[in-house]
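Dear colleagues,

I hope this message finds you well. In preparation for our joint manuscript, I am sending the Aspartyl/glutamyl-tRNA(Asn/Gln) amidotransferase subunit C (Paenibacillus allorhizosphaerae) sequence together with its predicted structure, so that both groups work from identical material. I would be grateful if you could confirm receipt.
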Amino acid sequence: MSITVKDVEHVASLARLELSEREKEQFTEQLNAILKYAEQLNALDTEGVEPTSHAMPLINVMREDAVRASLPIEKVLLNAPDEEEGQIKVPAVLE
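The corresponding C-alpha cells are as follows:
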C-alpha cells in the first residue's frame, strides 16, 4: 500500500489545510516511509503472543471513595475573588 499525492490532497481538503506542491510531495514521501517502516512489523513472529490493549498492565491507583466532611464555607470564600450571600461571585459570561 502506498500513499499518492491525490491521497494527501484529499486528507488536506478534509482537514481544511492548504498545502503547497512541495508540502504535498514532502508529506507523500514521509507517509510512504512510515508505511514502509510499519510493514516491517509483518515480518515479526507473533505466534503465541496474546493481544493487548496496553503494553503494561494497568492498575487503578486511585484511593477508595470515602465520605468525609468538606471545607467550611467560610474557608472556601477566603480564596474567592468576590462573595455574595455566602456564594462565590463571578463575572457574567452571558450577554
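For the figure legend, we might mention the following. The mean pLDDT is 91. Helices lie at 5-14, 21-39, 73-78.

With kind regards,
E.M.
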